[in-house]
Amino acid sequence: MFKWIGKYSKSLLLFFGISCASLPKSAMNANLVGNVYEHKYNSMPMIDKPNTKGAPFKTTLYFYEPTTIHQIEAGANSGPTISKIKSILVDSVVTDNSGTYSIYLKPGKYSVFVKYENGYYIPFYSGKDAVAIIETKQSEITRFDVAIRNSMSYE
Question: Are residues 15 and 35 in the same domain?
Answer without folding.
Answer: no
